Amino acid sequence: MSKQQRRKGNAKNASSASAHGYLAQGGENFVGLTPEMNIFEMASSNRLSNFSGIDDETRIVMRKLTKKDCQTREKGLRELTNIIAETSSIENCYEHFCGLVPQLSTDGSPTVRLLTMKTITLFLVKLEKSACKGLKKIIPMVLFARCDVTNGVAAAAGAVIRDGFEADKKQKVIQLFAPLVFEMAAKIVQGKHDLSVPVEYDASEDREARKSRLETQSLNVFLSYIKEFGADSTIWEEEARKLFENIAFLKMVFGGTNAALKVQVLNLAYRFKNNVEVILNTPSIVTYIQNHLDSQTFTPECSTAWEGMIILLPSAQFHTKVSLQNGIYPRFLNVIRKKGNHWRVLQHFLLPAVVLLLKEMGSLENNMKVLGTIMESFTDNLPWPTDASINAVLSWFNAFSDFVRWILTNDRINLVVWEKLHPLIVTVTEQAMTFPTKEIAECVTDLLQWIIELKTINEADVSTLLLNIESKIVGAGTENSRLIKHLLTEPGKNIVLSNLHANLLSSPELVDFQIIKNLSCSENDYFNATSQKISNFSFIEKTENFDITQAGDIVRLIKLLLENQEIKSLNISVKNDHVGRRLLLTGGSTIWNKLLKNVPVSTFQNMINYWHEKRNGTAIADAVSFLKEMGVEMDTKQAAENVEFLITLLRKMKSTDVSNEAEKNVLILKLFTAIFESDEDAKSEHYNCLSEHLTSDFNSGQFFEKLFASSEEYDIERILETACRVDKLIDLCEEQTRQNIVNNVLLSGKQCGTIIEQFQFLELEVMSCSTKPTVISTTHQHCYSHLDEHKAKEIVTESARIALFNISSKCECFFLISHEQFFFSDYNSAHQVFGWQVISIISALEKRYSLVALTEELQRSRREIEERLIRSDEVRFKLDDSSPCIFLADAYDMSFEQKKKYIQCQAEPSKVPEHALEVLYRENQTPLDFLMNVFEGGYQMFDFDRSKNYHWMINLMFVKKCIQYGGSIFVAEESGLRDYALCGIVTVLDIHKRSTLQQSTDILGNTPNAFDEDPRLEALTTLFIELYLVLNDSIKNDNHPTQTIEEWKEFYVPTINSLFIRMFRMIRKEQQPTPFVRTLLKAMFTLVEFPTNVPNDSVVTREFVPELSVFKYSLLEESFIAQAFILLSSNVEHVQLIGYAAAKLLVPIMFKTENPQVLDDDQDETEIMVANRSKLNLPVMISKSYPVDHIHKHVGPLLLSLAILPLETTKEFVLNQEQRVAYCDAIDSFFKNALNALMLDQPFDFSQVPIVCKIRKQMYFFQFRYSSHFFTAKSQEREYYLQSDLTASPLFFEKFASRLLFKSITLLPAAVRLFHKNIPNNFKPIFQEVVTKHASKLLIENELNKVQNAEFGEVLKVRTVPVTGQIISEYTVEDTKMKLTIELPRDYPLSVPAMNLDKAIVKGDRAKKWLLQLNAYLFHQNGAILEGIEMWKRNVDKGIEGAEDCTICMMTVHQQTNQLPKVKCKQCKNRFHSNCLVSSFHTYKWFESSNQSTCPLCRNNFT
Q1: Which domain of life is it from?
Q2: CA 1193/CA 1216 separation, integer angstroms
């Protein structure tokens, strides 16, 4: 193949099919080879030389069956099965396949043999009668394969006969072809058949393996046929007898090492009718049998040998060849004396063989002697080897037991042999105690029990035997004799063993619990016989030795012993142990009088305390009741909450006297409490018992309200489970008392109202924040008592638990099936109303404390309550009350009539004309319709009489409708409406006492408690601030006319912003986050700068700050600064943020006031001189306010945000480079502490892990949750790090911390780098990971964008490479470019950028100075990349400023060296390039061309 042909894409895979195609194309031109030839087919060439009548595809498949590789043969068989299934004419294929069956069915691959059988089955099934002509070839091989050593092949061969022939012909087929199979099998075994030699192409196994496999399979042919058809069938004998006539074959078998083959030959010999003759005619078989009677292998050689011995022993022919007395009998003795694995076989064959031996040996006397010797041989060579098989040992014991039983049941020999058996039994028993297996011990003890029950041996001999065994037990020790002792003393044993049992109990070194238990469980006769013989009762007197599982049996035995009048020496001391406690529970007069009567009461009390710890109330009740009957009173206070204890006491109360009713009621209430306070659900019998004792006057004492009044987080599932428990209990109560019990257990309507009353302070949230304009309560004119966050959440959580519990109970509703509707009782409707109110209260609470997420319990409580609420007529009726609850009106959708009635109720309809009131509830009016009706109706608006509810109502609804209408006010057709609404904002927010109307309040004067005096004023103010914010957002985001925007910004914004600043002064440090506080916070965040139009009247500094007095602050400024930083230390986060927002506006004033001289100086920005650097100061209130403790966790980060404000380039702050460096130095120490607080002191889940972990967790959460949605991890990074989100939400401080961290690494990269270097090592990798993964890439992107968007002039061209983070600056002078490369690392700013300067056009030391200066600015002085490039450009500009052209080359920068003219003439002061004067590589060679070393201009000599 040429090189072109070998190119990629031209190569093809080698395959048999490809080779066949090439050979077919070439015919016989390739040295006589054709597609039909194969070098591996030589062994089958005669059979396969001509495939006539089959197509090419089938021919190829048939050829595969003769391939050398077994995988190819397997593939060919599978393809052949497909052809058989898909092709209709397969006779020719079948004919050719039959010739291959002998080789394939004996193939070395089991898979090939298996597939061959399956293929034969397919042929037979499909061809049916047409397959008859090939049966003679294939059926013998199938029958042969039925005995294959591989089970799968044998099963497949059996399936051929089963599926290929009808049921009545199967046996005939086998009988017909069996002689052929036997003939083939015999030849294969003798090595005379062609199949016994592997064909040349079969490489699956070697010659020996194939020979062994086929020999085994051939002998199995005979044995399996005999097993299937019985030994009576003799058609197999002719061929089998040839095997035993072949002396060479037998010598080969028994002289070889194939044990399985020997066993098969022996088994075949045993199946002949004249088997003894066949065996004796083969001397090697007789020798083999005698030699393998004690074979230790795990093959069946030993059992086969004994089977042959059993056949030979009765034969007289065998006796003539082998002496029983001198040959077989000694051999038997040797086999018995030997202790090995052969005993597993001897157990089954020894006794029959010995019986036959004794029968053939003759006289009784001789037999007794032989039998005695055989029995003595059992105990020879003891003990057994330690490595002996336990199965073999057990077989030895079983064999000995069988011999003993046979001997003792034989009247002729039992008494004669007993004298020898007695010591042997003792020895065997002693040997059994050396093996810790129950089977061996059972074998021996069963034999002893059988001997005792047989009664053949007299009692004296039996007693002697037992005494000898007892002595062996004593000698063996406690552990070795354990099993024997337990089994000999088991219940149900013969009374003869009672003496042994008593002796064991009386011996402390031999007794154990099982022996004691056996006595306690024995029958009366055995127990009495044994107990009377016990001489020492110490085994039971030490009761502390028994555990709780043994105590029951011990107490039963003690009770039996106490009832036995003949036992006097029992001395038991009752203690607080398991036995003592069980004795107390057992009770009874006998135990009390003999054991418990004199026990100290303290012992009984300790028992009760123990049961209390184990929560065993039943035991406590039983014990207390028994002791009470005996006149002993016990303290049971600890068990008062135990359900079992209480139930048991109730059941034991037999008397129903009035004197016991009080005690009974107390127990019932305790049981009620215990069931519902338990972590686990009570049992059914507990509920049944409680329901039996509950009456209609049962009083739970507000149990569930107290149960749920817990400050800890409560599992919602527990509440629902408690409701289910109540349902279970109520269902079991009687119908006449059920409803009364429900009323006493669940919350009443009056109680619900009492709970709601404590949430009046949250009504302000509904009035101010509800999206339903009609939900306005103006009836509450008293001062609200605002709770702090902790207390408010606590009582709301408790109320939510109670509401969920009450509405979760199914017993609150009754069904009217005929109408398919719910009907509620008064209690149920009260619970539903209470549920509606609670979800409104939870929402109001969520709005109030918006910076902190609701607890998981409250969130889930709200969901669970909402799922169970039902909108029903009964609940709607509650809205028709004269004073409906504002929470219910907020949560429930009111109808038009209800809205009308609600408004009429609030607006004092008796004093308001109906036509004037109609505007408030008119149906189907849009917000614009309402505003126009009010605008044209002449109502008192904005500055109104505060004593009239109606005026409050119209103003509150007006502002809510304005908020709904939003920015559309600016484009309203009626321009008067726009001015009316906008002026109303200013009017309401700037209400003074100068108003002539009655009861007007000045909220901006010196009355900071104005809102507390009238909450309606706070709601109104809040709504108008909200309206301003809505309109302000509309101006920013919507398209409005230019005139409208200018009017808004020039008139309304300055005026209202000034009002906001004045409102800020009335915020108190301890003030709760009411709607006004939260809305003012939003308004403060919208302010860009401190208003200049704030009036300076009546300003009183709330706190004197000495640090501020040294600066030239105005009284107004000092007052606001002090107020802002006072609020920063508040415990209320919203108030903290208001202080922060105000301080943020005041920082520019503070910075300029406290650094006046430095900021006024006009510094040179070319170089930053450390020695002469001006000093700037951090505003003193920022450093002074830094907390010394961790109480105010957010103050540190908030102050850090204020401290770095001067570094941000804004209208208020424009610092040059030197001033930036000076300010960075000033805040260095503060920055370290504040950044540490930012990282470590945030109130998140990780108390001792940096906040960055929270940031990282948040990023991973979003990345996982929104990976396939709109929100991606990247967008979340930008949201957290780049966007300044000041929305008051639970994520506020997380986002604030993330943004502040990003600003810190942007403005103070060097300081952050130093901080990272010094933080503890366990935090360092986490900080590194977060900054690298999230912040660095955004920071690098920002830096590159800044540089990319900057303008540097014509001489400096800057480009960025975002992929590598490179910034390449090229400074061009004439045709020469000097290049500065800055590469930002991936973890910038934690690692420093790499810088490189190429083609410097100034001296090397000056270029290095520029780089060092840039390095110092970026690495140590918190310089930005853009500013560093600008500084480097200024240095280069200054370096080449005033540089003149070289008059030789007329260029400023040398084209080759990129240097400025440096060589100076002392006379004319002109400068030249050194290369222009002397270089030999340049066109200009002045010294050489002029042949002198003079100046080209003044001719002065340079030398």
Answers
A1: Eukaryota
A2: 34
3-class secondary-structure state, position 1126: helix
Cα–Cα separations (whole angstroms), residue 1138 to 133, 919, 948, 1228, 1244: 108, 38, 33, 27, 22
- Return mean pLDDT, the chain: 78
> Rounded CA gap, 207 and 214, in Å?
11
Q: Which residues contact 750 (CB under 8 A, 6 or more apart)?
A: none
The DSSP H or E segment spanning 1369 is strand 1366-1373
> Residue 1001 has what pLDDT?
45
Three-class DSSP labels, 332-377: HHHHHHCCCCCHHHHHHHHHHHHHHHHHHHCCHHHHHHHHHHHHHH
Residue 1229 to residue 577: CA distance in whole angstroms: 69
- Side-chain-facing half-sphere of 885: CA atoms under 13 Å: 27
Chain centroid to Cα 1382, Å, comes to 47
Amino acid 1410: pLDDT = 74
Give the span between the Cα atoms of 454 and 459, in whole angstroms. 11
Q: How far is the C-alpha of 1413 from the C-alpha of 1423, rounded, in Å?
A: 11
Indicate if the pLDDT at residue 1271 is higher than 70: no
Convert the pLDDT of each residue in 961-1007 to its tens digit: 888 888 888 877 777 777 888 888 888 777 643 333 334 445 554 34
pLDDT band at 32 (very low <50, low <70, confident <90, very high): very low
Say what angle helices 1195-1203 and 1115-1128 make with each other, to 10 degrees: 140
Give the residue among 812, 806, 815 at the shortest CA–CA distance from 835. Answer: 806
* Alpha-carbon radius of gyration of the chain: 55
pLDDT tens digit sequence for 299-340: 788 999 999 999 998 988 888 888 888 888 999 999 999 999
Q: Which of 697, 690, 705, 798 is closest to 748 using CA atoms? A: 705
| CA pair distance 485, 568, nearest whole angstrom | 27
pTM for the model: 0.60
Tokens of 1499: 């001719």
Residue 7: is its pLDDT beyond 50? no
Q: What is the tens place of the pLDDT at every residue in 640-677?
A: 777 778 778 777 775 545 456 777 788 888 888 788 77
Q: Which residues pair with 1373 in a beta bridge?
A: 1376
The Cα 477–Cα 1166 span in angstroms is 103
**What average pLDDT score do residues 1140-1158 get?**
86
The count of C-alpha atoms lying within 13 angstroms of the C-alpha of 751, restricted to the half-sphere facing its C-beta, is 18
User: Do 346 and 335 form a contact (C-beta atoms < 8 A)?
Assistant: yes
The CA distance from 1262 to 1269, in Å, is: 10
The fraction of the chain above a pLDDT of 70, given in percent, is 80
Beta-bridge partners for 1396: 1381
The candidate with the shortest Cα–Cα distance to 952, out of 922, 923, 920, is 920
For range 1343-1358, the mean pLDDT: 80
pLDDT digits (tens, 9 = 90+) for 1215-1258: 777 787 888 888 888 888 887 777 654 433 323 333 444 444 44
| Phi-psi domain of 776 (left: phi exceeds 0; alpha: psi -120 through 50; beta: other) | beta
pLDDT at 38: 42
Place of tokens 């048991």: 648
User: Which domains does the chain possess?
Assistant: 35-229 (1.25.10), 537-599 (no CATH), 601-693 (no CATH), 721-773+786-894 (no CATH), 1340-1441 (3.10.110), 1445-1503 (3.30.40)
Contact indicator for 1414, 1299 with CB cutoff of 8 Å = no
Q: In the predicted model, is pLDDT for residue 4 greater than 50?
A: no
| Neighbour count for residue 324 (Cβ, 10 Å) | 20
The residue type at 606: N
1491 sits in the region (left: phi over 0; alpha: psi -120 to 50; else beta) called left
